[in-house]
């Protein structure tokens, strides 16, 4: 087999490969010999068919199999000899001339073909000890636990209809309809036939809920608000809006005390136990957000510490996956890129950078894992499958079957576990300093971290 390199630019390679006709002939003889033992042909006893006759019957089809096997073996052998790993399946270009192909199939010519591929770049790992990480530590205050406890109590003691003359007060649960306009024009997402709201919960835009206090069931009023400057939907940020709002029903909190009786209904011993359970939940949520923030810093540091070209094909594939989801999200919510304060071109550029970052980080994470023997155990994989199945109450069996029948989807559950284990490995070596902060400050950090997030993929 002769191999000549015809292109070597960055990560791109192109090779001209020639497999001599005599090599193909000996491969063909071996295949025909194999067929001789299996072929059932009228007029001959099994295993007694002359090779010449088998060649006449099966020669052409056996030769095309030989070519396929010779090409695959040739490509993988060549890459091994060159100590190269292809980023994706190498592309093979066969001669286009039919007469030439016929000569090869008839065993009268060498097989010459081109192979194009991109190589995976060598990854030289940085020194992780130089990475500095701030680990958020949130001490939940008694006042915050009390506030959460009261909110939980208000939510769980239930509500009852205040009747036809119900007047809205703080703490009431309302049904309302509204049409939102900016400069007299309705805007996307600003209309609802029947929304629900607990007054004072801060779920709606600042200033909206306060203006409902004192309204009666059936009453309509223009509620005037200004969208916050940092509002998620960029096209609405900082704008003045008017919501023509009608109160559909007013439900007031049921009578009852936050006492041991209430805790017992929830299966807890007393209020102190309920308070402890709520505090544990708050601590767990903060710890999970703190881990998320540490992970973001580690990934940023790994991105910063490894600068190398990445295979275009991998970036294209990652970008296409992301872009499909982005377009689906935009169309699904009836939005345009302009609504999000950007253009399609700018969004493409931004997501292409994200795709490149992801591919580079993927290669770095894989290399760290390989070098340091980081592995995902079968038990961890199983736990991930159980957690995934639980995300779809009522559809557990379908989801379980989906993963059982799709090895690729099942394998994809390993990737996030592997990534987290690698991140933990690096975090242990990095220089961590604790930083005390409030839960609100941590929430803001997480929001700022989300710039590299893209719409999630949903199976089923």
Automatic annotation (TrEMBL):
Keywords: Cell cycle, Cell division, Chaperone, Cytoplasm, Isomerase, Rotamase. PROSITE patterns: FKBP_PPIASE. It is found in: Cytoplasm. SUPFAM superfamilies: FKBP-like, Triger factor/SurA peptide-binding domain-like, Trigger factor ribosome-binding domain. It catalyses: [protein]-peptidylproline (omega=180) = [protein]-peptidylproline (omega=0). The keyword Phosphoprotein does not apply. It is an enzyme of class 5 (isomerase). It comes from the Bacteria. InterPro entries: PPIase_dom_sf, PPIase_FKBP_dom, Trig_fac, Trigger_fac_C, Trigger_fac_C_sf, Trigger_fac_ribosome-bd_bac, Trigger_fac_ribosome-bd_sf, Trigger_fact/SurA_dom_sf. Its EC number is 5.2.1.8. One of its GO terms (cellular component) is cytoplasm. Its main location: cytoplasm. One of its GO terms (molecular function) is protein folding chaperone. GO terms for biological process: 'de novo' cotranslational protein folding; cell division; protein transport; protein unfolding. Belongs to the FKBP-type PPIase family. Tig subfamily. Involved in protein export. Acts as a chaperone by maintaining the newly synthesized protein in an open conformation. Functions as a peptidyl-prolyl cis-trans isomerase. NCBIfam families: tig. HAMAP family: Trigger_factor_Tig. Consists of 3 domains; the N-terminus binds the ribosome, the middle domain has PPIase activity, while the C-terminus has intrinsic chaperone activity on its own. This is Trigger factor. It comes from Paradevosia tibetensis. The lineage of its organism: Bacteria, Pseudomonadati, Pseudomonadota, Alphaproteobacteria, Hyphomicrobiales. The gene is tig.
